[in-house]
Design brief:
271 residues, globular, 11 strands, 9 helices, Rossmann fold
């Protein structure tokens, strides 16, 4: 594994406890009579309040990695740990946000935000109060009774984020949540997403195909090889802890990290 960085740890991340750990994880799927190895001997960790991105070619097992952390799937070999405990089922402390917002079209904004709270049996008054606070905090005030069809793509993603954070997960898994947005909206949402998650002090693993996004938002970037997936490189980014995506993109070091990551990926996508 290659590790690149300036050797500094301005946010003290290295001293924080490990929240997520993969130990030589192998995942095998069966397709008809054949077995497909999605991950082989994958190992990595994520520390408390760290924002980590995982990039790699299509089909390398990135989304499978998220399912293993959340407890929606199990490895064939190796161990997945959350806070030092083996993952053996769904994790209440883990939240999952997908590329598609999956808002319920028959429910308005406030009722979409409260879905997870309802499923956990939270009383109506409490869940409404919690949802209203998040709606206003994330710039959706005045749209409480609007339905998804009346919202822009960026607003729908803010509703999806509010819904995810309403249950107060400690660890957030993001599966390309901004990839469907137009470029300008995506840049704005990157800024909002990072600001919100820093304020909420979340531990984050982001799956993305966008190298610029990975460099802009992350404390660290992991590069996954082609199938079967494994961590082939790791980049500690030199930007100050708590940086904004705009600050990262404006850094003279941005292009160097972009190019280094592209070179790592290019080996696996070369035709």
């Amino acid at each position: 594994m290659q590790q690149t960085g300036n050797g500094k740890d301005p946010g003290g991340t290295a001293t924080r406890p490990i929240r997520v750990q993969f130990e030589a994880v192998t995942k095998v799927f069966r397709q008809g009579t054949q077995e497909v190895v999605a991950l082989r001997d994958m190992s990595f960790h994520i520390r408390d309040q760290e924002f980590v991105s995982l990039i790699g070619p299509s089909g390398c097992g990135k989304s499978t990695t998220l399912k293993l952390i959340s407890g929606l799937d199990t490895p064939a070999e190796g161990t997945v740990l959350v806070d030092g405990e083996r993952v053996e089922g769904p994790q209440r402390k883990v939240g999952f946000m997908l590329q598609k917002d999956l808002l319920l079209p028959w429910r308005n904004v406030i009722d979409n935000v409260t879905v997870g709270l309802e499923m956990r049996g939270v009383g109506k008054a409490e869940r409404i109060d919690r949802a209203r606070a998040l709606i206003h905090k994330y710039g959706l005030g005045g749209f409480e009774t609007a339905y998804p069809r009346h919202l822009s793509g960026g607003m729908r993603q803010r509703v999806a984020l509010a819904r995810t954070l309403a249950v107060d997960p400690e660890i957030l898994l993001l599966d390309e949540p901004l990839s469907a947005l137009d470029y300008q909206t995506k840049l704005k949402m990157e800024e909002e997403l990072v600001r919100i998650l820093q304020e909420e002090r979340k531990t984050v693993l982001l799956i993305t195909h966008d190298i610029a996004e990975a460099v802009s938002v992350s404390d660290r970037v992991l590069v996954c090889s082609g199938r079967p997936g494994r961590i082939k490189a790791e980049f500690d980014l030199p930007f100050s802890h708590g940086h904004s995506p705009e600050e990262a993109r404006s850094s003279p070091q941005f292009n160097g990290y972009f190019n280094a990551l592209w070179q790592e990926l290019e080996v696996d996508v070369r035709i």
